[in-house]
Design a protein that fits this description.
Number of strands of chain A: 0
Strand content of chain A: under 5%
Radius of gyration of chain A: 18 Å
Shape of chain B: rod-shaped
Helix content of chain A: 55-70%
Number of domains of chain B: 3
Largest sheet of chain B: none
Order of helices and strands of chain A: HHHHHHHH
Largest sheet of chain A: none
Shape of chain A: globular
Order of helices and strands of chain B: HHHHHHHH
Number of helices of chain A: 8
Distance between the termini of chain A: 36 Å
Distance between the termini of chain B: 147 Å
CATH superfamily of one domain in chain A: Winged helix-like DNA-binding domain superfamily/Winged helix DNA-binding domain
CATH architecture of one domain in chain A: Orthogonal Bundle
Strand content of chain B: under 5%
Number of strands of chain B: 0
CATH topology of one domain in chain A: Arc Repressor Mutant, subunit A
Largest interface: A-B, 42 and 33 residues
Oligomer: heterodimer
Structural class of chain A: mainly alpha
Radius of gyration of chain B: 57 Å
CATH class of one domain in chain A: Mainly Alpha
Chain lengths: ~180, ~170
């Protein structure tokens, strides 16, 4: 991921579309992949990517350079994806309750993710609760250090460690056929 | 080092290469002696590290940037509109405000004017009082002032049409 210079950030702040395009090209892959790994849906990942860059464009003037631009964009991405999931799950729950009540849906039918991009890793990721999934994603796929993950999520580094340990125990349990014994 | 401590390190710092030199030395010593922890280390690397490192990286489709550009264009238009509103003079803003506020007022005035207009043209005609005499009556009055006998003879035989003539003659 190429490092974006302060000059490019300043130009983007003043509305320079080419500078903003440079920021997009440097970070869109990361944003899109994080959004997909968090949600399991390509279409939703696209929507989240758009929302993230619109937010980056709006808030870029507030970016003070105290953290790296990459960390700042990761934070916006993770928060947007988590909020999207929360909003989606509430809406889906209402719709599902309505559909079941009206006998349009069977109570057990669940929404299916995109199979074309749904690999073994994604299958494992979807087993985890969101707070563990995001730690696994940032560490094992995005290769962020513990300190960087703590900065993105604004949590203690030991919390990162604990979440990773629990996530891996759950994944071992899934791989070994349902038992939590590692 | 006990197995619990070793397993915790294996599932976190060891496979994530965040382990301190001292912990690494202790863990290696433990792994030499403990086969189950050595097996766990191998499994963790095979199942929880390598597949994630080799996970497919998706490329965002070009429509995403096109949608973002459209969004940025819309945002720029809105910003221009807000800026022009903020930049225009007090008189222009006042005129806009009056234009907006005056609409109901102007409508009320128009309705009142229409009501007055129609009431004016539809009111009952007033009775016109006659103050002028016809030429014949005026001539007769002049004659009568001079000759009272002639007056009496005429008054008996002349037909008067106007109300005032009928009143006086």
């Amino acid at each position: 991921m190429p490092e974006i210079s302060d000059l490019v950030i300043e130009r983007a702040c003043s509305g320079d579309r080419r500078a903003f395009d440079e920021i997009y090209r440097a970070h869109s892959g990361m944003v899109y992949n994080v959004a997909f790994r968090m949600t399991g849906h390509l279409e939703i990942a696209g929507e989240i990517t758009q929302d993230v860059f619109m937010a980056v464009f709006r808030k870029l003037v507030q970016f003070r350079g105290q953290s790296k631009l990459k960390t700042w964009i990761y934070r916006i991405t993770v928060n947007t994806a988590l909020n999207f999931r929360r909003k989606e799950s509430v809406e889906k729950e209402h719709l599902r309750a309505y559909a079941v009540e009206k006998k349009i849906l069977e109570p057990t039918v669940a929404s299916q993710p995109d199979h074309e991009a749904f690999d073994r890793v994604q299958e494992l990721m979807m087993v985890l609760p969101p707070e563990q999934r995001v730690c696994m994603l940032l560490r094992s796929i995005e290769q962020l250090s513990y300190q960087e993950i703590a900065d993105v999520l604004e949590i203690n580094i030991n919390t990162v460690r604990t979440r990773l340990k629990r996530a891996r125990e759950s994944l071992f349990a899934k791989l070994r056929g349902g038992t939590h014994e590692v | 080092m006990k197995c619990d401590q070793a397993r915790e390190l294996i599932l976190t710092d060891a496979i994530d290469v965040e382990i301190s030199t001292e912990d690494k030395r202790e863990l290696l010593t433990h792994l030499v002696a403990c086969e189950s922890c050595r097996l766990l280390m191998d499994r963790a690397e095979a199942d929880l590290v390598r597949p994630f490192e080799q996970a497919v990286r998706l490329v965002p489709p070009p429509e995403i940037w096109q949608n973002i550009e459209s969004g940025l264009d819309r945002a720029a238009l809105q910003a221009d509109s807000r800026a022009s509103d903020a930049g225009m003079g007090i008189f222009v803003r006042l005129r806009k405000l009056i234009q907006q506020a005056a609409r109901p007022f102007a409508l009320t005035i128009a309705v009142i004017l229409l009501a007055v207009f129609f009431s004016f043209f539809h009111r009952e005609p007033t009775v016109r009082t006659v103050t002028r005499l016809s030429p014949a009556a005026s001539a007769l009055m002049l004659i009568c002032e001079r000759d009272s006998a002639f007056e009496e003879a005429l008054v008996k035989n002349i037909q008067f049409d106007t109300p005032i003539e009928k009143l006086f003659f």
